[in-house]
Amino acid sequence: MQSIHSKISFPFSTFNPRLLKSVPNWQRLAANVVKERIKGAITMKLDVEKLSSTSNTIYIADLGCAVGPNAFDAMQDVVHFIQQKYTLQCPQSNTTLQFLVLFNDQPSNDFNTLFTSLPRERPYYAAGVPGSFHRRLFPESSIHFVHCSYALHWLSKVPEELLDKNCGAWNKGRIHYTNAPNEVVQAYASQFAKDMEEFLCARAMEIVTGGMMTIIMPGLPNEMPYSQLAASLMYDFMASTFMDMANEGLVSEDEVDSFNLPIYTPSPAEMASVVEKNGHFSIEMLELTNPASLVDGPVDIKAWVIHVRAAMEGMFIKHFSTDIIDEMFDRLTKKLFMFTDQVESGYKDRTQLLVVLIRK
């Protein structure tokens, strides 16, 4: 369930962190689930001695940083783990490693908030790099470690077929591929594969040989229908709520038919396939974890909706009016409370994908 929250990577200007002040930091809790796994991967697989042999500065990129504070916590951990590995590998060294963290997000991201929020006491220097991570961002062979958390599930764009009334993938009456015809699902899957190929090719140019990349994102168990996930219920209810409002004349059906969420949740098999096809990285770890394992008790529906709204509000406002969005989220919350049993029965275990790659 808590895999719904996200550090936004498409379009970042939609993110509204003010909505999250009164609710649990689910993203950080989910990241803590894989924290020790990332530490283990760095300890076992990252050759820090070799990476630091030509320079005492380690360059780290955080892709899809949003405005913090989760990005700062993640970078603090990564730097600490790399320092520990260097001490293990080079116990007699008199060299002190330096770290430069390059925080990346779309140009529309609030970098002012990001950098005014940076911890004063931090073990790294910091810089911002605006731009889409589906393209090149850094000089060739300049990055030693890449971290990307809850960003890659956002597609670079909505698949064009979804808006073509003459195409079998026209997504009429829906805003996602949840419970949609196979043509719609395939359009989403195809766009994800294209985006991942562009992403991996760009990173292959930027990451040094032996460098590491960690990816955390929502995931789907192999062979499981997406409709079994709690997220699917949320998106279905969003669509039905908009259609209810269309029937009442509050929005038009055309407005609903022309809106689709650019979100895709891959299975481990899909992710392995795109990485292997790309050929520039070896897969050191690829597994599903339980993002809700640190959250006790039943689903907090109100907090869940707040997280979703924080992630998507700006995108909705660009397509619908502000008043409509307020009404939609109010109705959505009430509808979810009416179907609490369905929400609770949604599949929650092993819905967070952790991928660790090494540049060949």
TrEMBL record:
UniProt entry keywords in alphabetical sequence: Magnesium, Metal-binding, Methyltransferase, Transferase
Record's keyword annotation contains Methyltransferase: yes
GO biological processes: methylation
Keyword Cell membrane: no
UniProt-listed InterPro entries: MeTrfase_7, MeTrfase_capping, SAM-dependent_MTases_sf
Gene Ontology molecular function: metal ion binding; methyltransferase activity
Highest taxon of the lineage: Eukaryota
Pfam families documented for this protein: Methyltransf_7 (PF03492)
Listed Gene3D superfamilies: Methyltransferase, alpha-helical capping domain, Vaccinia Virus protein VP39
Listed name of the protein: S-adenosylmethionine-dependent methyltransferase
Organism: Gossypium trilobum
